[in-house]
Amino acid sequence: xxxxxxxxxxxxxxxxxxxxxxxxxxxxxxxxxxxxxxxxxxxxxxxxxxxxxxxxxxxxxxxxxxxxxxxxxxxxxxxxxxxxxxxxxxxxxxxxxxxxxxxxxxxxxxxxxxxxxxxxxxxxxxxxxxxxxxxxxxxxxxxxxxxxxxxxxxxxxxxxxxxxxxxxxxxxxxxxxxxxxxxxxxxxxxxxxxxxxxxxxxxxxxxxxxxxxxxxxxxxxxxxxxxxxxxxxxxxx
Length: 237
What we know:
alpha+beta, three-stranded antiparallel sheet
């Protein structure tokens, strides 16, 4: 059967006052199912909040836009949570086994967590944690009230160990008036070794093209176009 390589738009999974989520799901696209990969795009409005969820697979997150985002993570067997401030260009690997969970239904997103867990995860007191848990009835994304306290980045975090600003990094290839390429690998960013993934940021100017690339092994590449238009040719499939 011939593989369908035509570009696909993400399917809208959720939309609410706090933001929206779109997915390239393997159930919708046969080629993704064969490759066992997927993708998603999270759009948060001001004071939008994506509550805790569990990562059942390895992921890489990339911030396309914005400057004042916050992400909180708890890794398996870790005694403390990690809270980081995000900006455009930041890349964050998320290993499988991430210990935040997403609860659905009328009980609320955070209602299934103890007050102690919520207060520790979000660096708030027990009363604020109880209010947060009772107020959330949405499925995937919520909008926090104006006076509701947000988790703050921890001052003692070594952000460069778990987050990498690929936009600010020196490119591996930089051709004047043509474009640049920045490869993000475990050698540059050791934390990537925990997810077994890599990423490449390719920026092309008008009327420019990149040289042919090939995969020397059975690895799979997923390409996301953030801006502009162009053409891509794939051979050997």
